[in-house]
Design goal:
The structure holds two protein chains of two kinds. In chain A, helix 2 runs antiparallel to helix 11, helix 4 crosses helix 12 and helix 6 packs across helix 7. Chain A is 47% helix and 18% strand. Chain A is α/β, with parallel strands linked by helices. By secondary structure, chain B is mainly α. Chain B has a two-stranded antiparallel ribbon with strand order 1-2. In chain B, helix 4 runs parallel beside helix 8 and helix 20 runs antiparallel to helix 21. The chains are: A alpha/beta, B mainly alpha. Chains A and B meet through helix 1, strand 2, helix 3, strand 7 and helix 8 of A and helix 6, helix 12, helix 16, helix 18 and helix 19 of B.
């Protein structure tokens, strides 16, 4: 018995060392490949499937391997910050509003390609972010719950129509002091009213109906889908994905709809700077933009891209005049006030 | 003693002494080398993988972060952590004790089923259990709404309590079972023969004997509860606890300093429990394996007690079957609760993610082996030698379970991203972080077992002339066989389901199953997430089966 145990232990230990050794060697080979310009590392919060398809398409076209790491926006930003001493990524996907603070900390660098065909409104004059798509700020409604709580009222068409007393405790939204999604909703209220007092008045009323402020931007779509809440604040593509999976969720675009520019930035001091620049430019091109619109269900930043079937054109949509730079500047103050008023 | 000395001197002792002394000196030297090597290995491992990242992490916050401890939000989170910490720790330990008690009694039927029930929570991938609970018992839950017509919300303290109790009671069972099995049936029989009832025996004999281990179980469960992140974030619903608060600071605001400050707060309850437990252990002896073994079967339970026990455990088991059954079933339906049509799509997705699942299995197996060997050696060094720094090693081996996984991930990224310790981007770092996550439980199991082996056994061997190395190999290893296999299996299951620590350490091209589940779930692809989760569970079971085949009757999980 003791010899068998010993043999098992010895065998196990040697196996462990062998595997650890081969793992270390394997990654050493990868490092060599990326140093020779053979690959680009891309951190992105985009859903995994579209990100992989884009990477494959770029690889097929350019012969450059794209290594994709898909995680939530917050996790990627935390990683970028922790890796600052020896950056691992070349390109990081982000919302335009996140670029300002990162540029200040010198975590991303400026680059000004021609950006041909991109709508002028969606070009960063300082060259830190490179737009890919527009993401709309929407409301997801659980049709069954909505009918029950409101007695079959029509779905809301404007933000103010959401303020129904019978929805008390039935709304869910991401905590704007923690989540970019939540903050976009709040900033949208400021831009649409154009008046701080009016925006806070709306938020005061809205707060009375909120049953829960979630920590992450994706959570409300899940909680509405399972029927825990009647309606929730979410980005359109989160809701479309949940609906696509078969859950009874309606996507409402309250007028005027908030919008966020999503894109990519180049990581400062990255392993493959030229490779990163080329990839960022390719992502802004017509082909990649069409793929993104088709796969993510978002809106393009170029005029020459076909919209998904059934989608309203941007011109038809009543979009709020969302100023990403100002949204970034006022974020701290608004978050503090929000936390103070509503205790979150 | 050689025969020549015997013949040359009629009085054997005197002439033989120099020879005996030289041998004794050589043996002591060899013993020192043995102990020194083992201590160096354990110390080096713990310093490099536990101490260095933790210290690096503690240097992160500036003075400003420490001053924010007074914020009401932090105070509320701390208060909530204490409330849920006490509630879930107590309930999980009680349920865990009942399972262990039942499993240690041959007159309880259906122990095979109970054993599987106590195993299931260890095999559960992140996210899906919470989701299954919501879909079964939530506002639109299959049971609560469709079947019973209720409109109750599970979100909040109550739901969190339920889910954490179900998730963490196996830790208590795992810790308590060996002790309950080893408590001499002789003592119980004696007590019963002298006229005490079952209850008196239980209260005056069984409980006191198990007390040190119960404290051990409480400590372990408590650390799991207060550092738990997945359940409070999904089920807690605004019931803010410190571990979640640390996550939102680190990830939501990228404010590592504040996150670290919150983690330091989490050390406090762990440290208190740890010190209490040490003090109690120092006063009481937990020895139940001595030279002499009792061969009487345990005294049978009174019928009423047996029925009550089975009723409680049956209810818990029923809940577990519902939850895990629905995960399995969910992986075959198009959209849980919304569209019941059957499909194999989700399993196809799981197959597409075969690489991630394979990596998970491979790395976890490696991590389990390293963990098991290291923790047994560590337990021996700390509890059976007089090496300098044992107390520190003892603390370091438990420390990782007092830190939320997110912070371990971030502190590792800060420590191991740059030379001389540039490990990021390798598979090795994933294996090592899994080792660190699994060390506390493996170590506690090994310590419990080693403390039950009476030191008189190794003293006897030493007196008879055996070297340290020989005592370890020929006495400790065989006696620790049970702990070895348990630790191996538990380490594997723990590693394969590790999520928050590995999220920051995975690199493109080296994916793992658990983060993939969360990625899929985040975009509402619950079917696919469930498919990958089910795939991971199948691999876990396959791992158990392989271990069973390789180790045969020596694999006695929950059955030391």
């Amino acid at each position: 018995m003791r010899t068998t145990l010993l043999r098992v232990a010895a065998g196990a230990l040697s196996l462990a060392l062998l595997m650890a050794g081969s793992a270390a060697c394997g990654s050493g080979g990868d490092d060599a490949a990326s140093a020779s310009g053979g690959s680009v590392t891309w951190y992105t919060p985009m859903p995994e499937e579209p990100a992989r398809r884009l990477a494959e398409a770029y690889e097929a076209e350019s012969g450059v391997e794209v290594k994709v790491l898909r995680q939530s926006a917050g996790e990627l930003l935390a990683r970028l910050k922790a890796e600052a001493g020896r950056p691992q990524a070349d390109v990081i996907g982000l919302a335009s509003g996140d670029a300002g603070p990162l540029a200040k900390e010198k975590l991303i660098r400026s680059y000004k390609p021609g950006a041909e065909g991109i709508d002028k409104r969606f070009i960063d004059p300082e060259g830190y972010w490179h737009a890919n798509e527009l993401i709309l700020m929407t409301v997801g409604v659980n049709a069954d719950r909505w009918k029950e709580e409101t007695g079959g009222a029509p779905l809301p068409k404007t933000w103010d129509e959401l303020l129904r007393p019978d929805l008390k405790g039935q709304l869910v939204m991401p905590n704007p002091t923690l989540s970019g999604t939540g903050y976009t909703f709040v900033a949208t209220q400021f831009f649409r009213t154009g008046d701080d007092a009016a925006a806070w008045k709306f938020l005061d009323e809205f707060h009375k109906l909120v049953g829960q402020y979630t920590d992450s931007g994706g959570a409300p779509s899940q909680l509405v889908a399972t029927g825990e809440y009647a309606a929730g604040v979410s980005f359109a593509h989160d809701l479309l994905n949940v609906r696509g999976a078969g859950f009874p969720i309606e996507v409402v675009y309250p007028k005027p709809t908030g919008v966020v520019i999503s894109g990519n930035a180049l990581v400062q001091g990255s392993p493959n700077p030229q490779g990163g620049e080329k990839f960022v430019q390719w992502l802004q091109g017509k082909k990649a933009s069409q793929m993104i619109v088709d796969l993510v269900h978002s809106y393009p930043v170029r005029g020459d891209v076909k919209l998904p079937e059934g989608a309203q054109s941007l011109a038809e949509l009543d979009l709020v005049d969302y100023d990403p730079v100002r949204a970034g500047e006022m974020r701290d103050a608004v978050s503090k006030e929000f936390a103070k008023r509503y205790g979150v | 003693m050689s025969s020549t000395t015997l013949t040359s001197d009629p009085r054997p002792g005197r002439a033989a002494r120099p020879d005996w002394q030289a041998r004794s000196r050589r043996r002591r030297l060899a013993d020192r080398v043995t102990v020194g090597t083992l201590a160096l290995y354990v110390g080096g491992l713990l310093v490099l993988l536990v101490l260095v990242p933790t210290v690096a992490m503690l240097f992160e916050p500036g003075g400003e972060a420490w001053s924010r401890l007074a914020e009401p939000r932090v105070a509320e989170a701390a208060e909530n952590t204490v409330v849920i910490g006490v509630a879930s720790t107590l309930s999980a330990t009680v349920v865990g004790f009942l399972f262990a008690y039942a499993l240690s009694r041959p007159d309880i039927r259906g122990r095979g089923v109970l054993r599987v029930m106590a195993l299931l929570p260890l095999i559960s991938p992140p996210f899906v259990v919470g989701l299954a609970v919501l879909l079964l018992f939530g506002r639109r839950g299959l049971i609560t709404h469709e079947l019973l017509g209720l409109d109750v919300s599970l979100l909040g303290l109550g739901g969190l309590w339920l889910v954490q109790t179900l998730a963490f009671f196996p830790m208590a069972t795992l810790t308590l079972l060996p002790t309950l099995k080893n408590i001499g049936s002789t003592l119980e029989w004696a007590s019963r023969d002298l006229g005490w009832t079952w209850f008196q025996t239980f209260r005056r004999v069984t409980l006191p004997l198990a007390f040190p281990t119960i404290l051990n179980a409480l400590l372990l469960v408590c650390m799991f509860v207060i550092t738990d992140f997945g359940n409070p974030v999904l089920i807690g619903a605004g019931y803010q606890v410190l571990s979640v608060e640390a996550y939102v600071q680190a990830v939501g605001r990228q404010d590592f300093g504040m996150a670290v400050v919150l983690c330091v707060l989490l050390f406090v309850p762990t440290l208190v429990l740890f010190l209490i437990q040490r003090r109690v252990l120092a006063r009481r002896s937990a020895v139940t394996v001595s030279g002499k073994t009792g061969s009487l079967p345990p005294a049978p339970l009174p019928t009423a007690v047996r029925r009550a026990l089975l009723a409680v455990l049956g209810l818990v088991s029923f809940l577990m079957i519902l939850i895990y059954g629905s995960i399995l079933f969910g992986s075959f339906t198009r959209a849980w609760g919304a569209n019941w049509s059957l499909t194999l799509d989700h399993w196809q997705t799981a197959l597409l993610r075969g690489d991630d699942i394979r990596n998970s299995a491979l790395f976890s197996a490696t991590a389990a082996i390293i963990t098991t060997i290291s923790t047994l050696v560590a337990a021996y060094v700390v509890h059976r030698t007089k090496v300098f720094g044992r107390g520190v090693m003892d603390g370091l081996a438990v420390l990782p379970s007092a830190i939320p996984g997110t912070m371990i991930g971030i502190s590792w990224l800060l420590t191991f991203n740059e030379p001389p310790l540039a490990l990021t981007g390798t598979a090795l770092i994933l294996v090592l972080v899994m080792v660190v996550r699994a060390i506390p439980v493996g170590y506690r199991t090994a310590v419990t077992t080693i403390n039950q082996i009476s030191p008189s056994i190794d003293e006897a061997a030493t007196d008879l002339g055996a070297s340290r190395a020989r005592v370890i190999v020929q006495i400790m290893f065989p006696l620790l066989g049970g702990a070895f296999t348990t630790s191996l299996v538990f380490g594997f299951l723990h590693a394969i389901n590790t999520l928050s620590a590995v999220i920051f350490l995975t690199s493109p091209g080296i994916g793992l199953g658990a983060p993939t589940i969360v990625n899929l779930a985040e975009f509402g692809q619950w079917g696919a997430a469930t498919g990958v989760a089910a795939g991971l569970m199948v691999v876990s079971f396959a791992g158990l089966a392989v271990a069973k085949l390789a180790l045969g009757s020596r694999l006695r999980l929950y059955d030391l």
